[in-house]
Design a protein that fits this description.
With 505 residues, the chain is α/β, with parallel strands linked by helices. The chain has one domain: Alkaline Phosphatase, subunit A (3-Layer(aba) Sandwich), CATH 3.40.720.10. It has 13 helices and 17 strands. It has a nine-stranded mixed beta sheet, sandwiched between helices. Strands 12-13-14-17 form a four-stranded antiparallel beta sheet, covered by helices on one side. Strands 3-11 form a two-stranded parallel ribbon. The relative contact order is 0.18. Belongs to the sulfatase family. This is Arylsulfatase. Pfam families: Sulfatase. It is an enzyme of class 3 (hydrolase). InterPro entries: Alkaline_phosphatase_core_sf, Sulfatase, Sulfatase_N.
């Protein structure tokens, strides 16, 4: 079909007028009392057995799939971590954030980065807190603190407690960041008498004690804090955002997991992560809240091809046995080249790229009271959809769930096998964009330049793939389908301007 030339403004007007912001639905018969989101770091589909891994055993993550819903077409919004985490918190695509500028992303990792979420934005944690949920962000944060830069010697505000979290026990950046301390509440240095939470103690002379991060015990510590939060919150609704460091560099499994996998230290670390997921499952069972708790396991982006140059250096270890620091330098490369491990399965590409391997991730949802056990879906699901999906599960007709977040609760409940997402937008950290519409995927071969909030796509070289017949992106069809390319470019532009309404069916 020949694409009709219609102004972008007219298309936007049509979408705005035709699509209602909320639907008048009957009150829900059942809602999850608690919500737990577990986000792993750099874990691809090939790292999880229930997604087809032949080299790593993950019995606890597999259990979630056996007792819930496994999503086969789950995507992150970016192929690196901070923009995807931004999307989870805000329901917005990375291009609507400072991360649209690749230079910002680079400087963000190097300096005392500011909070990347404006305080006037609706956020998932604030939505949950306003509805009576006790909220916690435990683990890797990597979205910044402070207005211009974080004051790591004082009170680090604004931060997670300012966007809706009651409790924060965090890793400021990455597993290999330079801070080597945990953030508790709003400070690395906290008085012993003050509990984590939104309360402020601004006296610069206050007595303080920092909590050192031990590299091979980071995720063990995070799990203990998460279990403590669940224990303290079991009598009331709670929302837990638990972000692990595994399997980001440094690859430093706890001593009792070293040598347990078939592919070296990366496999050991993944098995430790699976063990911690099991501890969270066990804690929910011990508190008697399994049936009423929605737990979602996913990853911030696909797996990384090789270890970074600083891997294995400047470590603080509880146990140095097994040459853990030395092996951390090459753990991912050894798993790939010596043992044949495919961190993203047969998908093309890795973390940081624009192809499927950087974006397709494990995503499993278990809620015994509401989700049927042992089911799978091919419906397209973006992690930006978590905000609207969870909001619609816990509340009737919620508003302000982020411009790009689509309610996919019917997918989780088994009521819509095709899902509500019509187009999926992907953003590489260097500024390249991709859009998936149906089975077609269009991607730019170079970074996109912007005019206001509209991408300039006309002169960019393009690749085009039919994912239904070519899921591994081997056959570029761009030269044979010029009309389809123009159609997909138009869909991308409208979706970026209009938001969720233009991305949904």
């Amino acid at each position: 079909m020949k694409l009709q030339v219609v102004s972008l403004a007219f298309i936007v007007l049509l979408f705005s007028a035709a699509v209602p912001k909320t639907l008048n639905a009957a009150p829900k018969a059942i809602t999850p009392k608690n919500v737990v989101i577990i986000v792993a770091d750099d874990v691809g589909t090939g790292d999880v057995k229930c997604y087809g891994s032949e080299t790593i055993d993950t019995p606890n993550i597999d259990r979630l799939a056996d007792e819930g819903l496994l999503m086969r077409a789950a995507y992150t919004t970016c192929s690196v971590c901070n923009p995807t985490r931004y999307s989870i918190m805000t329901g917005r695509l990375p291009f609507r954030s400072p991360f649209r500028d690749p230079n910002f992303a680079k400087s963000f990792d190097k300096g005392k980065f500011p909070l990347s979420i404006p305080l006037d934005l609706p956020t998932l944690p604030r939505f949950m807190r306003e509805r009576g949920f006790h909220t916690a962000a435990i683990g890797k944060w990597h979205l910044g603190y402070g207005e211009t830069e974080a004051d790591y010697e004082g009170v680090m505000t604004p931060g997670p407690v300012d966007i809706g979290f009651d409790v924060h026990f965090g890793v400021p950046g990455n597993h290999n960041d330079r801070f080597e301390r945990f953030v508790i509440g709003d400070s690395i240095y906290r008085p012993l008498s003050v509990e984590p939470g939104p309360a402020r103690v601004d006296d610069p002379t206050r007595p303080a004690e920092s909590v050192e991060r031990i590299d091979d015990l980071v995720d063990t510590t995070l799990t203990a804090r998460a279990c403590e939060f669940i224990d303290n919150s079991a009598e009331r609704p709670f929302f837990l955002y638990l972000a692990y460091c595994a399997t980001h560099t440094h690859i430093t499994p706890r001593a009792d997991f070293r040598g347990r996998s078939r592919i070296g230290q990366l496999g050991d670390y993944m098995m430790e992560l699976d063990h911690h997921v099991g501890e969270i499952i066990d804690q929910l069972e011990q508190q008697g809240v399994t049936e009423e708790t929605l737990i979602i396991f996913t990853s911030d982006n696909g797996g990384q091809e090789n270890d970074v140059k600083e891997a294995g250096s400047s470590l603080t270890l509880a146990d140095e046995t097994g040459e853990v620091a030395l092996k951390a330098r090459t753990a991912k490369r050894i798993a790939r080249t010596k043992y044949g491990h495919k961190t993203n399965g047969p998908l093309r590409g890795y973390k940081g790229g624009i192809h499927e391997g950087g974006f397709r991730v494990p995503c499993i949802a278990r809620w015994p009271a509401g989700i049927k056990a042992g089911i799978e879906t091919e419906a397209a699901f973006s992690l930006v959809d978590l905000f609207a999906t969870i909001a619609n599960l816990v509340a009737d007709n919620p508003e302000k769930c982020g411009e790009d977040s689509i309610d996919q609760s019917a997918v989780l409940l088994g009521e819509n096998e095709n899902g509500q997402r019509r187009t999926t937008i992907l953003n590489a950290p260097n500024g390249r964009l991709a859009v998936i519409s149906g089975s077609w995927k269009l991607l730019t071969r170079k970074p996109v330049k912007w005019k206001a909030d509209t991408p300039k796509l006309d002169s960019l070289p393009i690749e085009l793939y039919d994912l239904a017949n070519d899921p591994y992106e081997k056959n570029n069809l761009a030269s044979s389908r010029p009309e389809l390319i123009e159609q997909l470019k138009a869909e991308l532009k409208v979706a970026l301007v209009v938001g969720a309404d233009a991305q949904s069916h």
